[in-house]
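The step that takes the researchers longest sounds almost clerical: writing a folded protein down as plain text. The outcome of that step, for a single protein, is printed below.
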Amino acid sequence: MGFHPINLALRFLLEVLALFGIAYWGWTQHEGLARFIWAIGLPLLLAVLWGTFAVPEDRSRSGKAPVPVPGIVRLLLELAFFALAAWAIVASGLQTAGYIFGVVVVIHYLLSYDRIAWLLKN
């Protein structure tokens, strides 16, 4: 189920929402130049990390791994990314949205049990 196109579309949507949530946090929690650095720089840095560290031949991605990492490292990176995003959304004052986001992420990972098992084997 973790490699099903609908679940992959959900994951992509969660990734985009996470980046927007983190950007929103940066915008609302800072002022002046720092506002731009946090709202643009942090999501950009996280997107680069997300795209760089991957497990070779991960069917949920392009299969390419610019910097190959073990599956457990990738899984921890993903969980940290989504946890940061949920925290940022809540910290921005959008508590309900942050909690809903977190619940949907958990549901996504529950549905992705086969991908998680694959990551833990690699």
Notes: Residues 5-29 form the longest helix (25 residues). The beta strands are 53-54, 67-68.
